[in-house]
Design a protein that fits this description.
Blueprint lengths: L2 E5 L3 H12 L3 E5 L3 H10 L16 E3 L2 H5 L4 E4 L6 H8 L8 E4 L12 H9 L3 E6 L4 H4 L5 E6 L3 H11 L4 E6 L2 H23 L4 H21 L10 H12 L4 H10 L4 H8 L4 H16 L4 H11 L4 H9 L10
Parallel strand pairs: 1-2, 1-4, 2-3, 4-5, 5-6, 7-8
Antiparallel strand pairs: 6-7
Length: about 325
């Protein structure tokens, strides 16, 4: 049994707390929102984000960050990407170099162009670090539907320890040392899922979505390799696996936001309707800034940016993608 602090009580943090508790670990779940803590304590259920999922009494729920961190062997960071730096900064006084910190969020920081694990390392500095990613909607993990993920760490023994802690008969975990590849795949697939949702909202078909996903993984791989990732990582769970589920699932908030935009909603209206953090919106601009830095072309992600932030009509964006200069498929 390991003592674990889950930092962030949204849908993913709550689902992971349930998973780890079911694995027999001593779990403390933390939220910065006092009303959320009170709801979880009172009802033992996240009424809004994971309705119907019961939290055992063995899961301790707290608003006290020190209590969630001190004495824990493993910390799981499951806060939205835009809050990762501020949360990590708040954690510094309570962490120790003996702890393993696992990033379970997905995204890029726009001003630094850091991955989220790099953000955490930049703030906390000491300890061991890993990332958990893959096709894993919280709604299904919490209901113990078979799911497979990958945990990445530059230290293979750390990856294997995290693998042992998370793995069970419905949650299979692989290991990898390609941390940058795992994080790039998990972040950029959200932008392609926005494009897939926009396509659905416009009434385009399966052919269109298949093209977006196929060319989308090409863009993700192209940028990932330029940042030092391994090509094969994008053929795995945190690449094509996560892209498939996020572009096609009814649980995908990125696809839903894109769907609403394709139907004519503004970005602000779409975000209000989804009423959850849409990570792809925050990642889209960072991806373009990163691509310019390493001189990589990302036509789909560029068009998503133009639709989100420059009032481009979605149909015009699709037209431009279809009418680009002729190319060979496997030549960048």
């Amino acid at each position: 049994m390991s003592r674990i602090g889950v930092i962030g009580a949204g849908s993913w943090g709550t689902a992971l707390a349930v998973l780890l508790d079911n694995n027999g670990h001593d779990v403390t779940l933390w939220s910065v929102i006092e009303e959320e803590v009170e709801m979880l304590r009172t009802f033992r259920e996240h009424k809004r984000k994971l309705p119907g999922i019961h939290l055992n009494e063995s899961i301790k729920i707290t608003h006290d960050l020190k209590n969630a961190i001190r004495g824990k062997e493993l910390l799981v960071m499951a806060v939205p990407s835009k809050y990762v730096r501020t949360t990590a900064h708040s954690m510094v006084d309570y962490t120790s170099e003996e702890q393993i910190i696992v990033n379970a969020a997905k995204g890029l920081e726009d001003n630094t162009l850091f991955t989220l694990l790099q953000v955490i390392e930049d703030e906390i500095k000491s300890g061991s670090f890993a990332v958990l990613s893959g096709p894993s909607h919280a709604e299904e993990v919490a209901r113990e539907l078979p799911t497979t993920c990958v945990v990445g760490s530059e230290n293979q023994s750390v990856a294997e320890k995290v693998q042992d802690i998370f793995m069970n008969k419905t949650f299979r975990v692989y290991t990898s040392t390609d941390v940058i590849g795992i994080e790039m795949g998990g972040s950029l697939k959200n932008v392609i899922a926005l494009a897939a949702g926009i396509s659905d909202g416009l009434g385009y078909g399966d052919n269109t979505k298949a093209a977006l996903m196929t060319r989308g993984i090409t863009e993700i791989t192209r940028l990932g390799e330029a940042m030092g990732a391994k090509r094969e990582t994008f053929n795995g769970l945190s690449g094509i696996g996560d892209l498939i589920v996020t572009c096609t699932s009814r649980h995908s908030r990125n696809r839903k936001a894109g769907l609403l935009i394709g139907k004519g909603c503004s970005l602000e209206q779409a975000l209000e309707e989804v009423n959850m953090v849409v990570e792809g919106v925050y990642t889209a601009q960072a991806a373009i800034h990163m691509a310019k830095k390493v001189n990589v072309e990302l036509p789909i992600i560029q068009q998503v940016n133009d639709v989100l932030f420059h009032d481009k009509e979605p149909r015009s964006a699709v037209d431009e993608l279809m009418l680009r200069d002729k190319k060979e498929e496997h030549v960048d």
